Amino acid sequence: MAYRCLGCDRIYGIEKLLYTCPDCREVLLLEDQRFDQLMKIPGKTWHKIFDYRKMLTQPALRGIYRYHEFIGPAIPLDAVVYLGEGHTPAIEANERLQKEVGLRFYFKNDGQNPSASFKDRGMASALSYINYLLRCGHLSEVLAICASTGDTSASAALYASYLQPQVKSAVLLPHKKVTPQQLSQPLGSGARVFEIPGVFDDCMKVVERLSDTFNVALLNSKNSWRILGQESYSYEISQDFEYELGDKAVVVPIGNAGNITAVMSGFIKFFKTGIISTLPKIIGVQSEHANPVYRYYLEPDPQKRRFVPVTVRPSVAQAAMIGNPVSMPRVIRLVEQYNELAGCRRVFTVEVSEQAIMDWQLTANRNGNIACTHGGETLAGLAVALEQGILNSADVVVLDSTAHALKFSGFQDMYFSGHFPEEFEIVPDRRLMNHPVLVRPEDLKKMPAPGKPLTGLDFESFVRRVSEEIARMLDLKRMTSE
Ligand SMILES: *Cc1c(COP(=O)(O)O)cnc(C)c1O
Ligand SMILES: [Zn+2]
Predict the structure, then answer these.
(1) Which one of 190, 212, 233, 430 has the lowest number of neighbouring Cβ atoms within 10 Å?
(2) How far is the CA of 201 from the centre of ligand 1 (A)?
(3) Can you tell me which atom of ligand 1 is nearest the CA of 256?
């Protein structure tokens, strides 16, 4: 394996952890220099290999390294760090929601990863690589460092803590721009946590300075090992749908653009090796409040496209609130390659309103899903893509719910309590609101309290009155005795 520079095409060995080209400073991608060997194995044989591995109990082959030859053939299996990431379920939406939306679709619940976001896929790869360097003596200690909109730091801190004491971690977060749940994660894993004024883009600059100047291991998606691990998302979709992707479309939110890079790259590798015979459509979604990638592709003529970073505004898709995505050069390269291989346009970008993100997230979750705001963003993106004819009713769509709903429950609270700050531009729809009801009948003299239970008649009347109140509010009918 080797790093390839996307700027000058130079190749570098993997004995050292590189983030950008030492020569021209462009971002890198990892490549397997013997990829041609993989192409000699028939696609059908690969299906058997992956399907067989699915039945094995060896930990290293249970997660993303089930696709070892594609994820990191240079990493020996005994260096693999497996914390239960990957193999997340693709759950078909219920009939009611599919009808409302207008086509068949699934949520692939990447919030069911160990730190509750898809970031664990890339982190398992990055930390397995670091573990490999430690084991073969190329490194003796590491300080792993990252900037984050919340989930990267949660994941980095978790995987680093597994490799104590040789690996320690420090994370930089934009002050008050991550949710309390996300902040609790690296704290709980024992990482050093630094809060920085500004937004993610500011944190990223500081972390880049640190990694350029000091001896630290950068765990942001600039680190191409992260991209490699995240490609497992595409491999799993291929396997989940029995390698038939002709009618499929995959929808992902775009923030720093590492994920969409990985998703494209993964499908390209499976396509080149004949494991899948069609490249699925890919739709990248951005909020109107953080939409630099969408804006870039608004210009139809590739020659005239110019990337312009944007100043982000508050977004409920907070993990994607990024104005200057690090992986933009990778995206540009891969979109071109993807469409070329497909023989027609197969990658699209759409933009959605903050309102649509929240409304669709809540609607999804009222129908048995566990989508985070970014999952809501993908569903909102699906609706827009359908409206614009990018998708039609014959397509079967896989939405990336990139994190667990619980990480972003604060936005649900704001929606339900009608306390969204104005700059989000969200007006709650009453039909989607929900509130707890305190049941405390006025006529009851005594109520139980923690440590002070009621007894006897007091307890009896408490139970009777509270039940009556609930039955009244729910309009329950009495059971009739036969
Ligand atoms: C990181 C993240 C994103 C954005 O992914 P990128 O790779 O930065 O484009 C979206 N949703 C969630 C929940 C995330 O944690
Ligand atoms: Zn270069």
Answers:
(1) 430
(2) 14
(3) 8
Is any atom of ligand 1 closer than 6 Å to the C-beta of 168? no
Digit-coded pLDDT (tens) for 58-80:
999 999 999 999 999 999 999 99
The backbone region for 142, taken as left when phi is positive above 0, alpha when psi lies in -120 to 50, beta otherwise, is beta
pLDDT value of position 248: 98
Domain-wise residue ranges, the chain? 53-117+226-424, 120-223, 437-482
Q: Which of 232, 402, 404, 408 to probe ligand 1 with, by most ligand atoms within 8 A of CB?
A: 402
- Using the predicted structure, report yes or no on whether residue 481 has a pLDDT greater than 80: no
The count of other CB atoms within 10 Å of the CB of residue 302 is 10
Separation of 254 CA from ligand 1 center, angstroms?
7
Tell me the pLDDT tens digit for each residue of 197-251. 998 889 999 999 999 899 899 999 899 999 999 999 999 999 999 999 999 999 9
Q: From 162, 102, 87, 96, select the one nearest 126 (Cα to Cα).
A: 162
Q: Counting atoms of ligand 1 from 1, which one is nearest the CA of 252?
A: 10
Domain 53-117+226-424 top-level CATH class: alpha beta
Q: What average pLDDT does the chain have?
A: 96
Q: Residues 156-177: what's their mean pLDDT?
A: 96
> How far apart are the CA of 145 and the centre of ligand 1, in A?
18
CB 258 less than 6 A from any atom of ligand 1: yes
Residue among 88, 204, 254, 349 whose CB has most ligand 1 atoms within 8 A, to mutate: 254
The answer to whether 53-117+226-424 and 120-223 have equal CATH topology is: yes
The residue nearest atom 14 of ligand 1, judged by CA position, is 319
Q: Supply the pLDDT for residue 201.
A: 87
The helix (H) or strand (E) run that includes residue 462 is helix 456-474
Rg (CA), the chain: 24
Per the model's pLDDT, the better-predicted residue between 17 and 360 turns out to be 360
Residue 195 pairs in a beta bridge with 173
Residue 395 CB partners (closer than 8 Å, separation 6+):
103, 104, 247, 248, 249, 281
Q: Does residue 183's CB lie within 6 angstroms of at least one atom of ligand 1?
A: no
Structure tokens at 436: 């707890």
- pLDDT of 177 higher than 90: no
The CATH class that applies to domain 120-223 reads: alpha beta
